[in-house]
Structures are given as C-alpha cells and as structure tokens.
Amino acid sequence: SGYLEYDQDVLMPQGWTHVGRVDPAEELELTFALKQQNVHLLEETLRLVSDPDSAQYGKHLSLEEVASLVRPSELTQKVVRHWLQSHGITSCLTVHTQDFLQCAMTADVAERLLPGSRFNRYLRDGLSLVRSSAPYSVHDDVHQHLDFVGGLHRLPPKGQDLIQKKQHSKTS
Amino acid sequence: LHLGVTPAILRARYNLTAADVGSAQNNSQAVAQFLEQYYHPADLAEFMSMFGRSFQHLSQVDRVVGTQGEGKAGLEASLDVEYIMSTGANISTWVFTNPGRHESQEPFLQWMVLLSNMSDLPWVHTISYGDDEDSLSTAYMMRINTEFMKAGVRGLSLLFASGDSGAGCRHLGKENSFRPSFPASSPYVTTVGGTSFKNPFKVTYEVTDYISGGGFSNVFKMPGYQVGAVNGYLNTVAATLPPQSYFNTSGRAYPDMAALSDNYWVVTNRVPLPWVSGTSASTPVVGGMLSLINDQRLLKGLPALGFLNPRLYKLKGQPLFDVTEGCHLGCLDEKVQGKGFCAAPAWDPVTGWGTPNYPALLAALLK
Questions:
Q1: Given the DSSP bridges, would you call strands B170-172 and B206-208 parallel, antiparallel or unpaired?
Q2: Is A51 in the B-facing interface, judged by CB distances under 8 Å?
Q3: Which tens digits make up the pLDDT trace of A28-85?
Q4: pLDDT-based confidence at residue B99 (cuts at 50, 70, 90)
C-alpha cells in the first residue's frame, strides 16, 4: 500500500544523461492531485451535454459550477494539508477547483514526505530536468485522499524528430 | 500540381472558400505543445505573407500563456500556430507554452492544472503530446481523464494528435503487441489521425499516412458512442485483421477522424521548410475547422461544440471524406510484417471516420 503509481514506468528513456543527485537543499515544485468528488456525476453530465439527442445538449457548465461539482471533500483537504504542514510545507498554491495543490519544498523534505523517492538531475539537448529514479509512496492516512503526485516521473515529449521521421522513412 | 501542403492546398482539398473565415467576437482557439519550444511571431507573419494571400487571416497570436523560450523557434510550435490559423482563419488564437517551467514540473500536467484555474478559455484546443499507455500509471491516466471531462462539460473541444508511430509496437519477450498512446486513447477527447494525397503532387483523394497513430486502448473500455462503428469495422475486416493477441478489441478505439499529415511547408526561424510531417500537423488543421464551425454556431446564438465525439459518431461519417485505402505501421515481425491496421469504409483505426468536408460538416453541426 502507499504506492499511488505502482505501475508508472520510472526508468529514464534513452537520450537523457544522468547528471547526479539533487542537492538536498535545492527547491522542487511538486503537484498534488487531490481526490475529487462526484466524478460519476461529472461523467454523466458530460454525456448529457455532448449528446445531440439529449435535452441538455450544449448546456455547458462554468468553471465555478465544475468546481462546485468536483471540489475535494473537507476531510480530503484537511488531511492533505495537515500531512504537508507536518513536514513543514506551507508554500502551496491551489486552483479554482481546489483539486490540485502546487507546493514548493526542498529535495530533502520531498524525499521524507514521499518515502522511496530519490531526486536526480538529468540532461537532454540542453534541457535540464529533475525526476525521481525510484517509485514514491505516501503515508497510509493520505493514500485514499490523493490520486497521484506530479513532478516525480513523467517527462516532456520529444518532438524534434518531426522532419527526421519523414525523411528517414522516405529514404527507407 | 503542387510541391507540398500549404494553406491553399488544404483549403482547396477541404472545400474552404475565401468566405470561410472567422468573424464572431467571442470565438477563440488555442494550441498547446510541451516540447519546451516556442513559436516566433516573425515566422507567423512571414508564413502568412507567403501563404495567406487567398483568405482573410490574422498574422499574430492574441495571447501567449506561459513564458516563451529564447533562441531558435521550434518546428512543432511553428507548425501548430501556422496551420490552426490557416484553417481557423481570422479567429483569435492563443498559444500555451512552457519553456519557463520549473525543472521538477511536468509540462502537460501544468497545462491541465492551468485549465482548472482559468475561467476564460478558448473553445478549441489542439495538443500534440502523447506517451505510451504502458509507461504511465493507471492512477495518472484516470485522473487526467477526469480533467478532460471537466473541460468537456465546460464546452471545450480538446483535440489530440493520434501519434506518428502507427499502431506502435511493444516487444514482450516472445510475443509482440501493438502499443496504444495516451491521451489519444482517452474516451473523452477527439483524436486526429493522418492521411496523404494519393498522388503527393496533386490535390487528389486521400489515403492513409502510414505513420498515423491508431488502435485500441488497453486501459479504457470502449465508450458507448463508438461501439457500433468499431464493431462494424471489426466485422467488415475480420478476415484481414492482425492477430487478436496484438490488440484489445474491447478498448477505446482511436483515432476519431483525420486530416492530411504529410509533406507540409512550415516557416521556422524565417526559413520556409518543406517535408514536415506528422499528426501534429493534421490536428491543428482539424482544430481550425472546428473553430470555424463554432464561429457560425456562436453567430447563430448556439453553444460551442464542446466534446465532439458523441455527435461526430452519430453522423456516421456522412460529412467527411472516407479514407478506405492504405494501412499504417505495426510491429516489424514475421506475424504482422510491419503492418498495423488498414483503412476500410466508414470508421477505421487509422483515419477514424475520415477527413473533413467542411461545408458538409458545417451543415451537419450547425443544426
């Protein structure tokens, strides 16, 4: 338990050079995806406003109405914030729908907050990136209140091969 | 005869006349790419001065969300902007960009978070981003799916490139299998594949572009709106389908539609470049046309199209050019010999329902 993303690929693809471990005092910014409410109702609403044969077709919601629908429960918000504050993390930004928290913290704090994580710096084509080389876990009390934590594994896509792909395939 | 795809070639093929340009006040469209690239305003101006003479157009972007990088402009960023503004002509256009992100941020996730924090957003968003489904956690994909639902209920249309590796291939020991891509495989977005002209130097009918991403999700079950269409395909081509072990017939099938993805002209760093190809070209082309349809709908006091798929599939391909010729890439092994799926009448997992015949699509979606 505790591993929110047990099936996430954590290996760095070819092309990224490992520079080394991140300094423990270096600041990171991580994104916490809080569990939302009424996801099934959201899905049903989407079906109704998108079906041309439905009386609700085109009756779209405002951001405020979406926020009212999916906003995480009080309990979820309280548990997650307490968990973060108990690790000294207080510099967080939320969004209109309150289902994401973006927090700044040092690498040292992040590795204690997310047991198992190990932050390293990688380089590709002049682009520098910090990611964890190992899966992370969260405290059992928090596990049911989070979908995932962003900023540890997934990488920006590589698109420069647009023209190479074609020329390569043309020659082949 | 022509030497590659330009706005005039696209507008000719998809029956866009000089009158098919935007005019509604509250209409807008956006491109988002996460390659740490940026577009250069001078490139867009040069592109439009070279290729935009035959239609009324804007030559600059209305808004850049995020920080533009320095140095050379990116090919993909240039391509996205230049072509959404060629079919979605004279329509306010935004660019979501992120070279200035923090090293520990995920660009695509950042864009998703932004959508949850901006009440005023363009109606159509075209996005060139995809990862192999098997490299992503289920928790992440499920949550991003919910974010797509949040955008759809707000009336936003999210168009994702289907990818440029055909059906893809995953080598699992003895057995290979096709490799679906996410977000292209999400049931809550519209996925755009790629085609080529039958004769690359003429405006002819279209065949599949062999790089066009397509297939069946291993994570998301087939949504109700496409069951009939996909089962129709599976029955029609049953005899020539790849081995069933290569794909999941109960998964969300994609793409939903397509457009030309081969041999584009793009201006980047002030240089006109030929031979640019990929579904990140076809996606803004379709996005621009949906923006034009939104324009006409807004002028009639109708709501924006929003999540298009349920309505698109109910049209059963009638207002699109059906692509029935060609296949796309698959695994290079003795069983499938480099071939994935093939096109067929009506919907297929290479080009979806086909490519937009604008006047017919406008008429169908203006009702």
A1: unpaired
A2: yes
A3: 999 999 999 999 999 999 999 999 999 999 999 999 999 999 999 999 999 999 999 9
A4: low
The 3-class secondary structure across chain B, one letter per residue, is: CCCCECHHHHHHHCCCCCCCCCCCCCCEEEEEECCCCCCCHHHHHHHHHHHCCCCCCCCCCCEEECCCCCCCCCHHHHHHHHHHHHHCCCCEEEEECCCCCCCCCCHHHHHHHHHCCCCCCCCEEEEECCEEHHHCCHHHHHHHHHHHHHHHHCCCEEEEECCCCCCCCEEECCEEECCCEECCCCCCCEEEEEEEECCCCCCCCEEECCCCCCEEEEEEECCHHHHHHHHHHHHHCHHHCCCHHHCCCCEEEECCEEEECCCEEEEECCEEEEEECCHHHHHHHHHHHHHHHHHHHHHCCCCCCCCCHHHHHHCCCCCEECCCCCEEECCCCCCCCCEEEECCCCCECCCECCEECHHHHHHHHHC
Give residue-wise pLDDT tens across range B220-237: 999 999 999 999 999 999
Nearest Cβ partner for B275 among A64, A148, A163: A163
Q: Residue B326: CB partners within 8 Å, gap ≥ 6?
A: B196, B207, B208, B209, B210, B342, B343, B350
In angstroms, what is the C-alpha Rg of chain B?
19
d(CA B153, CA B157): 10
Nearest residue to A19 (alpha-carbon basis) of A137, A106, A131:
A131
A142 has a chain B CB within 8 A of its CB: no
Q: How far is CA B132 from CA A155, B141, B213, B274, in A?
A: 12, 11, 11, 28
CA distance B252 to A119: 35
- Complex ipTM, two decimals? 0.95
Residue A124: the pLDDT is 87
Mutate: best of A65, A92, A162, A169, partner B, most B CBs <10 A: A162
